[in-house]
Specification:
The structure holds two protein chains of two kinds.
Chain A lengths: L4 E3 L2 E4 L5 E6 L6 E7 L6 E7 L2 E4 L8 E4 L6 E5 L8 E8 L8 E2 L3 E5 L1
Parallel strand pairs in A: 2-11
Antiparallel strand pairs in A: 1-3, 3-8, 4-5, 4-9, 5-6, 7-8, 9-10, 9-11
Chain B lengths: L8 E5 L4 E6 L7 E8 L6 E6 L4 E2 L4 E4 L5 E6 L8 E9 L14 E6 L1
Parallel strand pairs in B: 1-9
Antiparallel strand pairs in B: 2-7, 3-4, 3-8, 5-6, 6-7, 8-9
Classes of the chains: A mainly beta, B mainly beta.
Chain lengths: ~110, ~110
């Protein structure tokens, strides 16, 4: 596709519900990143994939957060038993090379936990 | 990665140059300066990056001081569409780095007619 695509654009979840957020990176991009952006703040790194390998998950805030990229393309960020503090915009980014190229971001998924 | 300091907000008149400063006094010799911007309700967008030489592309110019402790992003002719949050980020490039970006609070640039 022309850019990084994320779905859904908006998600409202009841507290305790599980959610799955999808990211379609630019075709051929090796690196994929997930970021969390709280209202009024800059994005914060969650996790990084190189192809299907999750090489860095140091930013995941709790074991309720899980990400996968099984075939090295589409990625899913799953949040179990959502809490109100999980309300944020979740951004996905991809880049062609492992480290030395610019990252392209999707528009994000705005998650609201009520 | 080194920490950056940016003003919280700035205004600029449409058609004038917008100069956005960034301090990175603890930058290391192998750290690059990157600029991204985020227009409302969109994901961040890459603008430009540099190591020690000044850089220019179709979007902006990046001026890095000789001691590399600060830099300035210049939008030569700001338009209303340049209204956004601008992030200055310093990070290492190369195999030892995953490429993750550490964003600060950024500078909110308001371009006014």
């Amino acid at each position: 596709g022309a850019g990084v695509s994320q779905s859904p654009r908006y998600k409202v979840a009841k507290r305790g519900q599980d959610v799955a957020l999808r990211c379609d990176p630019i075709s051929g991009h090796v690196s994929l990143f997930w970021y969390q952006q709280a209202l009024g703040q800059g994005p914060e790194f969650l996790t990084y994939f190189q192809n299907e390998a999750q090489l860095d998950k140091s930013g995941l805030p709790s074991d309720r957060f899980f990400a996968e990229r099984p075939e090295g393309s589409v990625s899913t960020l799953k949040i179990q038993r959502t809490q109100q503090e999980d309300s944020a915009v979740y951004l996905c980014a991809s880049s062609y090379h492992r480290v030395d190229t610019e990252a392209f971001f999707g528009q994000g998924t705005r998650l609201t936990v009520v | 990665d080194a920490k950056t300091t940016q003003p919280t907000s700035m205004d600029c008149a449409e058609g004038r140059a917008a100069n956005l400063p960034c301090n990175h006094s603890t930058i290391s010799g192998n750290e690059y300066v990157y600029w991204y911007r985020q227009i409302h309700s969109q994901g961040p967008q890459y603008i430009i990056h540099g190591l020690k030489n000044n850089e220019t592309n179709e979007m902006a110019s990046l001026i890095i001081t000789e001691d590399r402790k600060s830099s300035t992003l210049i939008l030569p002719h700001a338009t209303l569409r340049d209204t956004a949050v601008y992030y200055c980020i310093v990070r290492v490039r190369g195999s030892s780095n995953t490429g993750k970006l550490i964003f600060g609070q950024g500078t909110t640039l308001q371009v006014k007619p």
